[in-house]
Design brief:
This protein has 143 residues and is an alpha+beta fold. The chain has one domain (11-138). It contains 3 helices and 7 strands. It starts with 10 loop residues before the first helix and ends in a 5-residue tail after the last strand.
Amino acid sequence: MSEDYRDNMTLDEMGANDIEMAKDAIKKAKRYKFFTAIKAVHFMQRCIIDTLAYLGIKGITPNTHPKVAQRMMDSRQIVIETRTRYEGEDVWRNGTYIYKKGELVTFISEVMVAKSRQSPIILPGTIPGDPDKFHVITNAKVK
């Protein structure tokens, strides 16, 4: 594999760099609303497929065998990371992060549920807003 700019960075420097890349991606992100969770999940899949196509990997679908997809991504130095460690007000940062050569290209949040004004129940990933709608936040360029 070719040299990566992070090869000469400390862990602290890599962490700080990752935070800056995430902040930049989030500034360019939009919130998409859906009436069903399945439509939100399909949108997330579309974001991943379109991002991979943008990065030169065409023909991947949700049915592509994982080993085939991994070889394609490895050949282009693309890494997909799923983060689920954020809590509280930062829960919207949980999701899929797509990197190319160590640079964050796309952020796709997990599906979040808008809190219903009638329901006192607040689930993890719940955000205030339109009741009974599902939200995804992303900076992906979707066709």
